[in-house]
Amino acid sequence: MEQDSALRAHLVKLLSGGQAYQPLSTLLKDLSAETAGKTVQDLPYTIWQLVDHMRYTLEDILEFINNPNYQEPNWPDDYWPKEKAPGNQAALDKSINAISKGKQEMIKLVQDTSNDLYKPFPHGDGQTLLREALLVAEHNAYHVGEVIVLRRLLGDWE
Q1: Residue 133 phi/psi, 5° resolution?
Q2: Which of 23, 32, 69, 119 would staple 17 via disulfide (CB 3.0–4.6 Å)?
Q3: pTM strictly above 0.85
Q4: What CATH code would you report for 2-153?
């Protein structure tokens, strides 16, 4: 039981960020829609596309966890926004807030000791809550690094 509690605590820290990289709340704070939609030469995506991709992917993972009738979207078309920039600041803020909400939902799933971290989902092909939590953390960490680099290249980060 002690090991289970320790693992859950480590997962929460990993999902929250801030140990090896900036937490999302810090990274995305004060991000403007204008900056989020700017392109950088030789990069195929904008900050907006990364942020909205992170939102969509997190929501998709949570849908998989919670819905036994889950239908996988088409990769990569359904996972990436077509538009380079958000329609406005409200659209960007909505996507950022959805990431925060989804991350908190994942943390609650991990913290709930009635959820077996190792039991495969009956509607999957071996995925477990542990695997999905690690996937969210890895996916977010990967894209957090990209957003930081883009913000620096755009002169919008220290």
Answers
A1: -65, -45
A2: 23
A3: yes
A4: 1.20.120.450
